[in-house]
Amino acid sequence: MNTSDRRRIGVVGYGELGQYLVKAIQESENLELCFVWNRTSSVLNGKIDETLILKDLSDFPELNPDLIVEVAHPSITHQYGTEFLKHADFMMGSPTALADKELESKLRTAATSRGLYLPSGAFWGGEDVRKMADLGTLKALCVTMKKHPSSLRLNGDLRARNEAVVGDNAVELYNGPVRQLCPLAPNNVNTMALAALAAHNLGFDGVQCKLVADPKLTDWHIVEVEVWGPGDISAGTAFHCHTIRRNPAQIGKVTGSATYSSFFSSMNRACGKGHGVHLC
Ligand SMILES: NC(=O)c1ccc[n+]([C@@H]2O[C@H](COP(=O)([O-])OP(=O)(O)OC[C@H]3O[C@@H](n4cnc5c(N)ncnc54)[C@H](O)[C@@H]3O)[C@@H](O)[C@H]2O)c1
């Protein structure tokens, strides 16, 4: 921590979420903006004080951040995650990056003196899921995300399947383990990645998910979480919890509106837990 009482925050990415966080940090009494980096730095001109614009992200240690917040793309963590953790706490906005086993292992190893923080985002009940995973009572977990096709940023076959969605009918684009979906929808399924990290006894291969493109969802992002605990799942006598989160979202947006304030709360909680990996 720096000598000033205010925590120095570096923000990586100046899209919708980055702009929201920068404004919230500047309005906060407890936080101080120490840098903003964006892939195209000209976007920041006139909006961010020149002294706070970081042109080359590898120069971040010179600005002495307490916490670095990534809200750009999973590729940032691939490139800089371990380096960030040598100098600061790191809150990863795009945890889909951790579907890469090698990267997950590298980051866990790197988080030995600073904390790697994972924001709950749109994942409702994350602490409960983690408690069940800790106790070994979590038996199965399925996350279903439903969005308008224009909110989906997809790669590979899924992109073509999404582009082929016509009319009003919802189409299930993917049904399977979280691990394979993350690289195909890196910007859209952070919630599922977080579920796989919270449900650590099942992980990216054990947590199941469904991604649905629904042309009727012009005002909402929907996340359904189904958890099964002890008992006989096939007989319908196991513990079961099913939540449905309807998050207002403008058509075409990656991030639903309640997720912005959730992110800001997570950022405020991303401190003081020491080294290791923490949900926040
Ligand atoms: N954890 C969660 O629950 C959650 C929720 C919403 C968004 N997110 C993630 O946060 C990130 C930002 O979301 P947003 O709504 O602000 O998106 P956005 O599209 O509005 O902004 C993304 C920003 O990152 C930049 N960017 C895109 N690709 C990049 C790359 N390869 N390298 C560097 N910069 C790149 C863009 O230029 C833009 O400035 C996304 O990765 C998104 O998936 C996570």
From TrEMBL:
Span of domain Aspartate/homoserine dehydrogenase NAD-binding: 13-115
Single annotated GO MF: NADP binding
Domain of life: Eukaryota
Pfam families on file: Asp_DH_C, NAD_binding_3
Alphabetized InterPro entries for the sequence: Asp/hSer_DH_NAD-bd, Asp_DH, NAD(P)-bd_dom_sf
Domain Aspartate dehydrogenase, chain residue ranges per copy: 169-259
GO biological process: NAD+ biosynthetic process
Family, as annotated: Belongs to the L-aspartate dehydrogenase family.
Name assigned to this protein: Aspartate dehydrogenase domain-containing protein
